[in-house]
Amino acid sequence: MEIIIFSDSKVTEKGFAAFTKKKGNSLRLIPVKKLKSELTKLCAGSVVYVDITSLPAKDHTKTITMLNSREDLVSGLIDPKGILIDIASFFHKGGDDYIGKELFKKGITADRISALNEFHGEIEQSADSAADSTIKSLMPSGRDWTKISQGNEYTFCMMFIELDRINEIKRSQFGAGAANPVEIFKSYVENHIVGANGKIWMWMESGGLILFPFDGKSCDNALVAGFRMMLNRKIYSIEQSIFNTLLSFRIAVHIGNTVYKKRGDTGTIVSDSINSIFHLGQKFAEPGNLYLTEHAHHFAPEGIKPHLKTVGQFEGREIFRMKNVL
Amino acid sequence: MKISPHLSSMCLRSLIDSLSTEMMVHITRLIIPHYDLNQRTGFPDSIPIPKKDAAAQILRDLRTEELMIPFINQLVGIHQNGHMGRDYPINNIRTIIQEMYNMGYLYDQDLKMFVENPKFSRSRNWGVLREGDEHAFTFLRLDIVGNSNLVREHENNVIQQTYSDLRSIAETAIERRNGRIWNWEGDGGLAAFFFSNRNLHAMLSSMEILHELFLYNSVRNRLNRDVSTRISIHAGPCVYTTDPTILFKNETVKKAIEIESKHTKPGSVTISNTSNLHFDEIILKQFKPIIAGQNLRYYNYELRWEE
Q1: Could you tell me the pLDDT band of residue A241, with boundaries at 50, 70 and 90?
Q2: Measured between alpha carbons, how far is B307 from B305 in angstroms, rounded to an integer?
Q3: What is the ipTM of this complex?
Q4: Neighboring chain B residues of A61 at a CB cutoff of 8 Å
Q5: Pair (A114, A196) in one structural domain
Q6: Which of B207, B217, B307 has the CB atom closest to A235's CB atom?
Q7: Are B88 and B76 in contact (CB under 8 A)?
Q8: How near does any CA of chain B get to the CA of A86, in Å?
Q9: Rounded distance, CA A251 to CA A289, Å?
Q10: pTM of the entire structure?
Q11: Is the N end or the C end of chain A the one with fewer CB atoms within 10 Å?
């Protein structure tokens, strides 16, 4: 078995001497500065530790979030100087192991690592059961629209988006001759999704459903478009002063299946995924926020996971929210 | 810039129909000081110059010295606002403006001058600024943090691609708001904004660059660490020049560089007190005031995430 440790300290290896002594076990030491790039390359199930004392205190939270964003790893912290104050928070955020000052001095054995692996396996099994049922029934639609034909069922990355406080906006500004704020909002959405291969599939009064082709590997196109819309709404609010205030809308992202029909012919479609995303966007989502289901989170780019936080369950699925920009 | 024969003949007709010879000379002297029509035409001082000859000579001289656009700027200004308390309606002025539009120029009411239409072309001087002319600009200075280390630690092709991506991000955000990148070295650059909303446009561009860089680092960055920039925004007078040596000696540009290097944290934008005036309340809320010295207050923007 191999353990990967991100550390800049020469004494780290000593703590694992008992582990490496056992035949077949090895240790790979990587400088902490390579954490971000190396983390993405690790295979699922790898046992990874980060030496927290190799990092400045201001980077602890960020590093822990980054480490735990790879939920398929067995993650731990090494703290030979005992500097971490809130150890439990590491576990709250999904961590699996903590090696403190005394334990480090005593040394880490092969048995301890085996026990850790077993423990992590049990946790994963229960947490992944809901996501697994969807992920196993994937029918990827591809990276673009070329292979998508009408009448067939595919897995898409679905995005619900809706303007907040529409009645208020209409009352205050939408007079005769004035620009229609919904049309302006719709063009903002279109400008952001077009380069990401997204298509508005259904559009109601002040929002709708966008489909992005899904290749079974990543929903980065949709999420980057969603993040970009959220980040740039301040800029847009100023450039389009019609809103007279900060443009506010809700986004929900989900990976799900539906039969594809062209826009306008969607009235007869029955899809559990479409129902779910509408419920999430209309019943659960708070104004001005972006949410994603655990299925979308599973396929989210690693780089944005530190900027997502879990906000509870909805209709049996764990829901994540994009952290607010203060 | 080449003036079409059609535009020349329209201007000729308008001058003859709308202005006296004295007034034509007067307007011309606003562009070419001490312009002497008699000397140029060969008419002795004692003989009045016919309007047709005067207009033809003036336009010929303006074309030769490539000063037709400043002259047309004056004609539009005089038509709209009169001169010395008198109205001077210029015949066919709308047609002249339309012809300028067809040639790729728009009339900016705030600057009171024709400028390049960004839909058609984007030149460094917006198609109108002349070397040596002083104008008010807003500068956006951008610097890549830790450039030397990044270059040392990464393969050349990876770093080249990353820097090219960064330039593309900056260029898109800046040119979308009609700014121009005047200088770009490997590790950053200087952009200028010229139009009436130049402070706001520079600031929105800088915010967009920070947002895009965040997305780039999250999804596309191939380096072993985030690419981070320091951006400053400062407004002031500057003589238009294509010579970078002269440009970087300008006090406004020097100040922009100083604000970027001394008062800006990595991953943030600092706006000087000369460029933050009259901003919308929505935007002011995004910035935090910082004290940069005695009686000197700058404003800082960065992506601040909730924990």
Answers
A1: low
A2: 6
A3: 0.79
A4: 307
A5: no
A6: B207
A7: no
A8: 15
A9: 6
A10: 0.71
A11: C
